[in-house]
Amino acid sequence: MRKAPNGSGLFLCVCFDSAKASQAICYNGPMILKSRFSITRIFLAVLALSVLWCSAAQAGSFKVARINGSVPATLKSYVHWAKVASLTQGGSNPGVVAVPPRYGSCVRTLHKKGYSWKKAWSECRSQFAAYNENVMSLLITSSWILGEAKERNLSVTAAQVNAKFNQTKKAAFPTEKAFREFLRSSGESVGDIKGRLKVDLLSDKIRADVTKGLNDSQAQDALTRFVRAFQSKWKSRTTCNRSFAVDICGHRAK
User: Fold this and answer.
1) pLDDT digits (tens, 9 = 90+) for 96-141
2) Can you give the pLDDT at residue 71?
3) Which residue has the higher pLDDT, 64 or 58?
4) Which residues contact 142 (CB under 8 A, 6 or more apart)?
5) Do the beta carbons of residue 141 and residue 206 sit within 8 Å?
6) Read out DSSP for the chain?
7) How many CA atoms lie within 13 A of 182 on its CB side?
8) CA-CA distance, 48 to 239, in Å (whole number)?
9) pLDDT tens readout for residues 166-198
């Protein structure tokens, strides 16, 4: 984890082969929205409910996506990360979240700011398009790694996550005040960061499991085969709500 070049956030690269930079893909953006795997971009999403709209009271259970055997992505988690994306990516309306298909809250907020109803709806639709793929990719990538680790009986302890958090926090921020300012400006919590670091640590364990007992050449071949199979397996288990679906969703629900 390290500071982003523009100071807006942190990078978190999750790799199965960190030694082969030429064969690794890293989303060059804030840690909150990016992760990395060698060879192929890997994403995740899950079996969604057919409901396209729900009230704020229903937001916690509404499913944006579902992966068989994994934790579903709820609208509540989506809205949280969409807000983080809005705050860190800048734009004219930071912190305003647009949720399809009607973009209701976003439209009302912008209308109060002086936008016409038509312009507000258009702006909210554009805003959603700007961050949806990144937000879905974050939710998807994390869930795939957690699911793979569970199937392999791999885990990390809270103590390991805390140690990684303290190490990376110290490297990224010179003072506690600077760290707190990052949390305030990004909308992230300590729990969010620790969750991403847990994914990072689990990806290291998966890589070690795949390459156990192999020399460098054999390990790279094994990783290549693994990543392809991994992507195919988890994408086939993934269904996204049509309103939020991106290219990496294996299936789409109405």
Assistant:
1) 999 998 999 999 999 999 999 999 999 999 999 999 999 998 898 8
2) 57
3) 64
4) 35, 44, 195, 196, 199
5) no
6) -EE-TTSSSEE----S-TT-GGGEEE--S-GGG--EEESS---------S-----GGGTTT-EEEEETTSPPEEHHHHHHHHHHHHHHH--SSTT----TTT-HHHHHHHHHTT--HHHHHHHHHHHHHHHHHHHHHHHHHHHHHHHHHHHTT----HHHHHHHHHHHHHHH-SSHHHHHHHHHHH---HHHHHHHHHHHHHHHHHHHHHHTT--HHHHHHHHHHHHHHHHHHHHHTEEEETTT--TT-SEEE-
7) 25
8) 6
9) 999 999 999 999 999 999 999 999 999 999 999
Give me the residue spans of the domains in the chain.
2-253
Going by C-alpha positions, the residue among 1, 6, 2 that lies closest to residue 185 is: 6
Distance CA 160, CA 110 (A): 44
pTM of the predicted model as reported, rounded to 2 decimal places: 0.74
**How many other C-beta atoms can be found within 10 angstroms of the C-beta atom of residue 63?**
21
Q: Which residues contact 248 (CB under 8 A, 6 or more apart)?
A: 41, 43, 44, 45, 136, 137, 140, 235, 238
